[in-house]
Specification:
globular; mainly beta; about 190 residues; 4-stranded antiparallel β-sheet; about 0% helix; 5-stranded mixed β-sheet
Length: about 190
C-alpha cells in the first residue's frame, strides 16, 4: 500500500468506528491490516484533532483494513476471563507469519482508562500478553518478575534463533507495581 504525508486538514478515509486519538500505543501489521493496541488519550493531548477522553466502552484493540481504508473495533477474548487493559508505553513485537503479537509492561495513566481519568498517578504493569491476531484472543503469559513493572522498553523478534525465534527485551524504566511514588528508575545495559 503506498503511503503519503497528509496535511493537517486531510484524513485517511474512515468510518464512524475510528479509534480515539491515541499516543504511545503499539501498531502491528498482519495480512492486509494494521492492528492498534493500547495507547493513551492523556489530558496533555486534549488539543489533538479528534481528542476524546477514555470511555468505559473503549476498545483496546483496533483494526485498520488497508484495502477498504476502514477502522473496526476488535473484541478480545481473554483465555482467563480477565479484561485486557489498555496500556501505553509498553514494549511490543509482532511475529507476522504466525499472526502473533506480544506486549510487555507499559503503564496506565489518566488517559488509558476512565478509572484513572482523574488521577495523576502513573502505574507500571508487569504483565506479558500474547495476542492471536488470527482469532482475536489474548492471554497473559506467566512471568516471575517479583512485582516490578516496566515501561518505555523496546522488544524485537529475531526469527533465526531457535526453532521459533526469540523475543529480546531491552531497557526501559522500572517501578514497583501499585506504588503511588511517581519516581521510577531507568534501566541501562552495559556491554563489555
Amino acid at each position: 500500500m503506498p503511503f503519503e504525508i497528509l496535511d493537517a486538514d486531510q484524513r485517511v478515509p474512515s468510518n464512524s468506528n475510528a479509534p480515539p486519538a491515541l499516543s504511545r500505543g503499539a501498531l502491528w501489521p498482519y495480512q492486509d491490516s494494521l492492528y492498534l493496541y493500547g495507547g493513551s488519550t492523556s489530558r496533555l493531548n486534549d488539543s489533538f484533532i479528534g481528542y476524546q477522553p477514555p470511555k468505559t466502552e473503549d476498545t483496546v484493540l483496533w483494526r485498520f483494513d488497508t484495502l477498504s481504508l476502514e477502522w473496526s473495533p476488535q473484541p478480545l477474548k481473554s483465555s482467563d476471563g480477565r479484561k485486557v487493559p489498555r496500556l501505553s508505553n509498553g514494549a511490543s513485537a509482532v511475529v507476522e507469519d504466525r499472526g502473533l503479537a506480544f506486549y510487555y509492561g507499559g503503564r496506565t495513566d489518566n488517559g488509558t482508562s476512565p478509572d484513572t481519568q482523574n488521577s495523576t498517578a502513573i502505574n507500571f504493569s508487569n504483565e506479558f500478553y500474547v495476542f492471536d491476531l488470527k482469532n482475536g484472543s489474548a492471554r497473559a503469559l506467566p512471568m516471575d518478575l517479583a512485582g516490578a513493572g516496566r515501561a518505555d522498553a523496546q522488544m524485537i523478534y529475531i526469527p533465526d534463533i531457535g526453532k521459533k525465534g526469540i523475543l529480546v527485551l531491552l531497557g526501559g524504566s522500572t517501578k514497583p507495581t501499585g506504588t503511588t511514588d511517581d519516581r521510577f528508575r531507568g534501566l541501562f545495559s552495559r556491554i563489555g
